[in-house]
Structure formats: structure tokens, C-alpha cells
């Protein structure tokens, strides 16, 4: 066994000094400062400690339990930003942990700011230094749940966990994975920012498309709004029109064919949409 930074380990209290205790795995030892001791301990006790590096890079043990380790993930708060280094997160210890700028978005405009939240664990770099690590897509997928079609048009709240060129990914409070295309936002949200939007499409795999834009046409009746927002989530086009099969309409929109035709007719009368070859399009696409 070795004393490994970033992990909770059971070590033996080996000797006491004025400023704390040294704990050991019987091969090497590490300092447990007095301020990191919880309760009373005696020589030869086996205690659980977490090992990290102090501000001078020296290994330090603590009996405090961190929010995250190299083996566990959790949501942690951003407590500081350093343009040259990255962002610092609070993991419940005396020292805040750094998410390196190398692991953050290229553009600092979408870096997290103080108060944002990140889903992280810990890692060691090639020099053995301890850093925070952002959760990867597979980790988020394990945390997520599939949305049902009933989630369509619902308001959601969640945190941005990944940014890419064409949009942003969020995890909602319901644990749905949501994608926000850049056409569905006015300002690109920050990594770690908590945002609110609405679901404009539910995909077969249970992920959702989310819009951060305000609901358009508040005077629109409910059925017309459902159709309009479904089309909005598909870029302004849908493979349904007033001659579509009633079963298909019921399955997709949960409305009768008569209600669908009335709602679609209202949209056409208002010149918001038009039909062509079995499809319906936003008039703005002409």
C-alpha cells in the first residue's frame, strides 16, 4: 500500500509532534496537522484520512471528508477564477482545488464564475499534483434519466455541464440530458451556470432539446402552441400536415386529428406556417 493523494485511506497514527501527528502505512508517513484532526486520537490508532497537497505542494492528511475524491464525483461550487490558471472549487477542505484552464472552454467568456456549480472528481497530473476533473459525457450519462414524451413543452431548470461550438449541454433537475442549439439562445451560457428553459423536443433516447428563448405568440391557443414549439425544436419543419394519419397525430401530439387540423389551420391563417408535399414549414423558411 502507498499513501496516495486524492483518496481516503486508513492509516496508523505513528508519532506525535507539537504541530500535529504523523500517520503511516508502515512504509511512509505524512503529516496530520492539529487543525486537521477531528476528535481525539492516540498513537497506534487506525484512522481514516484524506491526503492532499498544501499550498507549498507538500502532502498533508486531514480527517475532514472532502466532497469529492479521485474515486467519487459530486456537484461543487466555484469560489474563484484565475485567468492564468483556471477556476477554483470548494471541496470542503482548507485548500480549494483547481480546475485547470486546459480543461475549461477555449473562450474565457463561458468559463464558470463564482457561485456556478460543476460536477467533478479529482485527478493527478503527470507530476503527481492534485487537480479537479470535470465529469465526462459517460459519467453524466450514468447520472441521467430518460425523459418521457410527457416532458415535451415543460419548463426545466438545470446546470450547463459542457459547451461545444454549436450549442451547450445541460443536466436538468429531473436528470434529463438537454441540448441547447445556438439558435435557441440569445447569449451563450457559461459552463456551470444554472439556467431555465423549456423542452422543445424529446428524442427517442430520452434526451431533450431545450430552448432558452421566451415562448413566442402568447395569444396562441394551447394546441397551436404545441405544434409551433414542436416545429421550433425541429428547425421550423415537421413531417405532418392536415392529411396525416390520425394515429400518428395522436402518438406525436396527444391530440385528435380534428383538434390538430383546427390548430394547424389557425397557424396557416395567421401565415405562420405553410404545407407542402406532406410537410409543414415555418413561413419564414420560404
UniProtKB/TrEMBL annotation:
Domain Conserved virulence factor B second S1: 73-133
Domain Conserved virulence factor B third S1: 141-214
Origin superkingdom: Bacteria
TM annotation in the entry: none
Domain Conserved virulence factor B-like winged helix: 225-281
InterPro entries: CvfB_fam (IPR014464), CvfB_S1_2nd (IPR048588), CvfB_S1_3rd (IPR048587), CvfB_S1_st (IPR039566), CvfB_WH (IPR040764), NA-bd_OB-fold (IPR012340), WH-like_DNA-bd_sf (IPR036388)
Family recorded in the similarity comment: Belongs to the CvfB family.
Record's protein name: S1 motif domain-containing protein
Amino acid at each position: 500500500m502507498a499513501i496516495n493523494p486524492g483518496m481516503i485511506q486508513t492509516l496508523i497514527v505513528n508519532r506525535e509532534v507539537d504541530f500535529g501527528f504523523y500517520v503511516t502505512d508502515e512504509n511512509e508517513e505524512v503529516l496530520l496537522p492539529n487543525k486537521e484532526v477531528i476528535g481525539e486520537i492516540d498513537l497506534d490508532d487506525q484512522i481514516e484520512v484524506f491526503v492532499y497537497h498544501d499550498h507549498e505542494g507538500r502532502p498533508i492528511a486531514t480527517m475532514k471528508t472532502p466532497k469529492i475524491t479521485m474515486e467519487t464525483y459530486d456537484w461543487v461550487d466555484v469560489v474563484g477564477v484565475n485567468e492564468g490558471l483556471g477556476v477554483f472549487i470548494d471541496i470542503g477542505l482548507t485548500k480549494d482545488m483547481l480546475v485547470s484552464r486546459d480543461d475549461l472552454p477555449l473562450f474565457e467568456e463561458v468559463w464558470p464564475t463564482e457561485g456556478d456549480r460543476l460536477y467533478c472528481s479529482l485527478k493527478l497530473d503527470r507530476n503527481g499534483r492534485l487537480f479537479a476533473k470535470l465529469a465526462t459525457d459517460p459519467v453524466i450519462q450514468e447520472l441521467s434519466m430518460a425523459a418521457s414524451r410527457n416532458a415535451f413543452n415543460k419548463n426545466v431548470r438545470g446546470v450547463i455541464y459542457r459547451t461545444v461550438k454549436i450549442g451547450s449541454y445541460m443536466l436538468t433537475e429531473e436528470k434529463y440530458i438537454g441540448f441547447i442549439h445556438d439558435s435557441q439562445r440569445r447569449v451563450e451560457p457559461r459552463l456551470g451556470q444554472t439556467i431555465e428553459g423549456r423542452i422543445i423536443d424529446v428524442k427517442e433516447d430520452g434526451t431533450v432539446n431545450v430552448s432558452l428563448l421566451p415562448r413566442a405568440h402568447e395569444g396562441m391557443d394551447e394546441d397551436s402552441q404545441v405544434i409551433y414549439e414542436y416545429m421550433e425544436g425541429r428547425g421550423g419543419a415537421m413531417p405532418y400536415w392536415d392529411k396525416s394519419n390520425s394515429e400518428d397525430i395522436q402518438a406525436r401530439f396527444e391530440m385528435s386529428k380534428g383538434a390538430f387540423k383546427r390548430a394547424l389551420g389557425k397557424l396557416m391563417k395567421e401565415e405562420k406556417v405553410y404545407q407542402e408535399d406532406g410537410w409543414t414549414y415555418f413561413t419564414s423558411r420560404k
